[in-house]
Design a protein that fits this description.
By secondary structure, this protein is mainly alpha-helical. It has five helices and no strands. Keywords: Cell membrane, Membrane, Transmembrane, Transmembrane helix.
Length: 129
C-alpha cells in the first residue's frame, strides 16, 4: 500500500493536469463562467484535501522528530470548521459574482476532488485483485 505522501503527490499531478485543461477551456471557450467555476471549486477542494493531509501528518508524528508550530496544531484542531468555511466561501463567491462564476460549476469543482479520490481507490483495489 502506498503511503499518504505518495498519494498526495499523485493528487497534485492530477489536479495540476485538470487545472491546465480548465484554463485552456477558460481561455478558448465562450463558457468562461463555467470553467472559472470549475477552477475555483477544484482549487478550494484541493486546499481542503491539503488541510486533511497536513492534519494527518501532524496526528501521525509520534516519533517527535519534527516539531510543528502552534499554527499547525490549530489548523489540525479546527480542520472541520476550516473545510466548511472554505466551501461556504466558494459558494459565496459564486453567489456574489454570478456573471463571472457559475454556481453549479463551483459545486462540481468542489466535488471533483472526491471523485478523484474514489477513482484512485477503485484503481488501487483493482490492482490488488
Amino acid at each position: 500500500m502506498t503511503n499518504i505522501g505518495q498519494k498526495m503527490k499523485v493528487y497534485v499531478v492530477i489536479v495540476a493536469g485538470l487545472m491546465i485543461l480548465f484554463m485552456i477551456g477558460y481561455l478558448t471557450s465562450p463558457l468562461q463562467p463555467q470553467f472559472l467555476g470549475l477552477i475555483v471549486g477544484l482549487s478550494l477542494s484541493f486546499f481542503n484535501q491539503w488541510t486533511t493531509y497536513s492534519k494527518t501528518l501532524i496526528a501521525t508524528n509520534t516519533t517527535g522528530e519534527k516539531r510543528y508550530s502552534i499554527f499547525s496544531y490549530a489548523l489540525a484542531g479546527f480542520g472541520f470548521a476550516i473545510r466548511i468555511s472554505i466551501v461556504l466561501f466558494g459558494v459565496w463567491l459564486a453567489l456574489v459574482f454570478p456573471e463571472r462564476l457559475d454556481l453549479i460549476s463551483v459545486i462540481i469543482g468542489l466535488a471533483l476532488m472526491y471523485f478523484i479520490i474514489m477513482a484512485d481507490m477503485l484503481l488501487e483495489f483493482g490492482r490488488k485483485r
